[in-house]
Amino acid sequence: MDIETVDLGRMSYDRAYEVQLEQHGRVLRAREAGDRLAGVLLSVEHDPVITVSKRPGAADHVLASEELLARQGVSLAKTDRGGDVTYHGPGQLVVYPVFDLQRMRVRLHDHLRLLEQAVIDSIASYGVEGVRDADATGVWVERPGSHSAKLCAIGVRVRKWISMHGLALNVSPDLGHFGLIVPCGLHGRPVTSLAELTKKTPAFAGVRDRVVASVRAVYEAPASAASEAVSRSG
């Protein structure tokens, strides 16, 4: 089975969602036809946007007024992924795996753990140790004497066992924009970035290429990778 990779560059959230739907249709048709295509891995950098899920109370976690958001140049968008409220913007790497989990024999729980593992593997090359939180999906960085800080948010949706949405890794975004929301609905949990942790700005394209390669790698042998990822998550 084959996985294609497509870099969308910088694109609005709504347009990228349309691309996901287009690719979802391709992957579904490939399944029905028995073609080799099992997934399309999209990478993108979004214009500033706050996405709000359908979870009850999610909209209450947008702290800024519409006027303030307009002054900051941040738009609002509804989303059908899991999770709560998330910010996307320049300097943040977003990766959308449109994968046929049925053909890959990957369960939803394992899909989340594999995405976490791909990020943990990628950021290790920058000297950053990512960890899991048993109560909150994503990749975190421990901070002595304080709450761990979120480095990567993960939220997905599965339609006909083909995944959509994915991960958002903070490379060098404007962290001040996260103050406009309660990130992922988690009160008192700080957000960080690779730039803040490494005290320098990593090349965005380099981070993108590492993450894309890591995602592909963990899905090449998903059964063993998922088992290892789950065991690491405790």
Give an account of the 3D structure.
- There is one protein chain.
- This protein has 234 residues and is an alpha+beta fold.
- The protein contains seven helices and ten strands.
- It has helices spanning 13-33, 66-72, 101-104, 108-124, 194-198, 204-220, 222-232; strands at 2-11, 37-46, 49-52, 75-78, 85-88, 92-99, 131-133, 136-141, 149-159, 162-170.
- A seven-stranded mixed sheet has the order 1-2-6-10-9-8-7, sandwiched between helices. Strands 4-3-5 form a three-stranded mixed sheet, with no helix packed on it.
- Strand 7 (131-133) and strand 8 form a beta hairpin.
- The two termini are 31 Å apart.
Which secondary structure elements does this structure contain, and how are they paired or packed?
Layout: E1 2-11, H1 13-33, E2 37-46, E3 49-52, H2 66-72, E4 75-78, E5 85-88, E6 92-99, H3 101-104, H4 108-124, E7 131-133, E8 136-141, E9 149-159, E10 162-170, H5 194-198, H6 204-220, H7 222-232
Parallel strand pairs: 1-2, 3-4
Antiparallel strand pairs: 2-6, 3-5, 6-10, 7-8, 8-9, 9-10
Helix pairs in contact: 4-6, 4-7
Keywords:
234 residues; alpha+beta; three-stranded mixed sheet; globular
Q: Helix coverage percent of residues?
A: 25-40%
Q: What is the tally of helical segments?
A: 7
Strand coverage percent? 25-35%
Characterize the overall form.
globular
- State the major sheet: 7 strands, mixed
> Biggest sheet, strands in spatial order?
1-2-6-10-9-8-7
**Which class do the helix and strand fractions yield?**
alpha+beta
- Euclidean distance between termini CA atoms: 31 Å
Which radius of gyration do the C-alpha atoms yield?
17 Å
E-strand count: 10
Summed over residues and divided by their number, the pLDDT gives a mean of 91
Order of helices and strands: EHEEHEEEHHEEEEHHH
Uncertain regions spanning at least 5 consecutive residues: none
